[in-house]
Amino acid sequence: MKTQVIKLNEEPANKKRTGSSVDKRTKNTSSSQIELSMEYTPAKANIILDKTHRSIDHTIIFLSQGSMDLEVSLIKFHLEKNSLLMIPANSVIATNSFSPDCQYRLLTFPTFAVSPNDLIGYEPLLIDIEEPHASTTDNYFQMIEMLIRDATEEYSNCVTHAVTSFIYFINKINELTLQSKGLLDLPNPQKIKSEFLYMLNQNPHPIRTISYYTDRLNITPTYLNNVMKKMTGMSTSEWINKTTVRAARELLSDPKNYTVAQVAAELHCGSEANFSKFFKHHTGESPSEFRKRILNQ
């Protein structure tokens, strides 16, 4: 296992995101360095195997051999050879399993190290890369490794530009994937999807009104639904319901502070009866049954 690190000269002032209706993002707290680890083997890696951790930097994982199952901020991913996963900063990462022959390359870099930062997005992005793009991806890692190994701090911008070029390349591959799904006919589908999911998850108690999101994204409910359905297989309402159920489980697991009626109010579900009906429809058990089962575990 080889690890290369380069420290950046200084952190520039955070740039305001332009052309977006989403509120201000989390302030950057990343360290001032770009780190590249070549041919990681999970059994020897001390930051990804059998651990749950929050990565303050952006991360790119490219599987060069074997397979791996992991979760990024509660979203499950299965990676096989030539799978590439882009993980935005401040994500919670946990590895569930991996094959004995699993090897992967890992690149981490601060928020301010690439421009524009919109290229990374605000949710994980999994791409299955085919040849010859897989070979080019591997070449990018090797080029960045060489630059990090040879560059001094005075020339750290060379590494930054190489990482930026790599991200542009990855996004171009993603555009080809979107094109194959007929999604390029929809303006900015990746951005719309990313910003909707960011807004949906930024509050512990999700807002269940579709117009709340479409007004801020400046799009119609039909357009948002088409994007989410084509890109994720789930409609806008299904995503809102899924997030609401997850929040409901968290609140119901805290009986000292929340009654069922209070949970219903916090999640904008109307009356306790309406919430109970909603929860049982999506989980198969009533809020009381769920709470009793959790408390008895």
In short:
This protein has helices at 133-150, 156-180, 189-202, 210-217, 221-232, 236-252, 260-266, 272-283, 287-296; strands at 2-7, 33-40, 52-55, 58-65, 68-72, 75-79, 83-87, 91-98, 103-109, 125-128. The protein has 297 residues and is an alpha+beta fold.
Q: Total domains, how many?
A: 2
Q: How can the largest sheet be summarized? A: 6 strands, antiparallel
Helix content: 40-55%
Indicate the low-confidence ranges by residue numbers: 10-31
Judging from the principal axes of the Cα atoms, what is the shape? elongated
CATH level-four homologous superfamily name of the largest domain: Regulatory protein AraC
Reading the helices and strands in chain order gives: EEEEEEEEEEHHHHHHHHH
Query: What does the average pLDDT come to?
Result: 78
Task: Output the CATH topology of the largest domain.
Answer: Jelly Rolls
